[in-house]
Amino acid sequence: MTPKHEPKENVVGWLAGLFAVLVIGAALFPAYGNQKGYAKRTQCFSNLKQVGIGFALYTSDNEGWMPPSAAWIDELKPYTKSEELFDCSVAGRYGYAMNEALTQATVEKWSTERAAETPVAFESVTIGRSVVGSLQLLPRAPRHGSVNNIAYVDGHAKGVRQGSIFNSL
Question: What are the entry keywords (predicted)?
């Protein structure tokens, strides 16, 4: 004779299995949710790095001079080949600024002294075409979690944590 299972045991087993699936799903959901934010941060970083390379190419072709501040995006377009590179993936249209300390300057001034520490372009709270300003324009609440993306004179770019950049201003 086969023993009969109590209906309570089947329900308890089914609920335990459902609970386990829900716990695993809840643990994995934030990881999947963060992927979209990470992708936008990576896209913005890539755009800004290419903008930084555009600055380097422009200065190479123009005897070391930086582009005119009022039209820096227009001057860099032949080197970047895409208007979309000047768009932060979170801010939308545009979203970057040129470092005002580099306007009317040659790269020679910056290439030997602290080129790896001198921002050439960065994310900006002022949204517009060919914005120029200081690092005070960086978003106080970073667009990409706790990071603001910055391109430097020597050609590299990096995501800088919120506190570290403002502590040095």
Answer: Membrane, Transmembrane, Transmembrane helix
